[in-house]
Amino acid sequence: MRLSVVIPCFNEEHGIDRLHVVLAEVLPGVSEDFEVLLVDDGSQDGTLPALRRLASADPRFRYLALSRNFGKEAAMLAGLSQATGDVVAIMDADLQHPPQLLAGMVALLGQGHDQVVARRTRSGEPTVRRLLSRLYYRMINKVVDVELEDGVGDFRVLSRRAVRALLSLGEYNRFSKGLFAWIGFDTAVVDYDNVQRAAGSSKFTFRKLLNYGIDGVVSFNNKPLRAAIYLGGLVTVLSFAYAAFVLVDSLTRGVDVPGYATLMVGVAGLGGLQLLFLGVLGEYLGRIYYETKRRPHFLVKEASGVADPPVSVPL
Ligand code: UDP
Ligand code: MG
């Protein structure tokens, strides 16, 4: 069995050597025939030179450099598209995904699963973050069509069949957590304890996480649009009822001037609601806009062992 390990790297210069040492020690025990495919996602630090050095020192380590920062989803996709293994693992460059788990995960895959995912506990994380993520997953699973699970991330091992399935999904907006769930197949779960980053700092700020959260809601269903219809309907019914009341009231008791409060509440409330759902509408429209362009998910600048790699590779 040939094993490919895909690793997206963005500004990870301080972690590459350590990663090499650990993987060179662990991977031969998982499979004699393995490759590590490091994808440089447009790093601005010394990551690419480090990858060049690594690839020339150890031919089992290949790299692919993207022309700019396309984001982790695109970097993973680039790696998957170039991986040659029968079994493909995806993991982070910062050793937060313990490579020691790979042996067990690959073994599980051999027992007939097509995906083996590692699920981390959230020990050592701030309570607020833990609660927020718990709340988020509880809510999102009520909305989306696929089952998303807290703690389950991109650390996983895939069969060739599952990789092929993922590569067959050409959509531009990639919410990989949802895509992994969407392709289905038998999935096994392995638990592990949260690990702190080995070097460097996290690239995911609060704002990025918030956007990621919205992606999760919007990528896999059109329920927010449905919500607009329902809420709009409700408000319309209520306003008809209120209009009837005002009509009858002013006919029977005459017109009285006060009403500033009702007016303001109505205007402000409805204004807010309209803007909110205009945003929802725009979100979907924006997605259609990007999808219709049919642009490649990433562009390649450089690849180890290839003098002049094609800039755009088909999935
Ligand atoms: N990463 C990437 N492109 C990006 C952001 C991150 O390839 O635009 C990589 C990063 O190098 C790391 C992995 O994605 O290997 C996870 O990133 P990070 O550790 O910053 O996220 P966290 O563990 O904090 O969720
Ligand atoms: Mg990390």
TrEMBL record:
<feature type="domain" description="Glycosyltransferase 2-like">
    <location>
        <begin position="4"/>
        <end position="166"/>
    </location>
</feature>
<protein>
    <submittedName>
        <fullName>Glycosyltransferase involved in cell wall bisynthesis</fullName>
    </submittedName>
</protein>
<keyword id="KW-1133">Transmembrane helix</keyword>
<keyword id="KW-0812">Transmembrane</keyword>
<feature type="transmembrane region" description="Helical">
    <location>
        <begin position="228"/>
        <end position="248"/>
    </location>
</feature>
<comment type="similarity">
    <text>Belongs to the glycosyltransferase 2 family.</text>
</comment>
<feature type="transmembrane region" description="Helical">
    <location>
        <begin position="260"/>
        <end position="285"/>
    </location>
</feature>
<keyword id="KW-0472">Membrane</keyword>
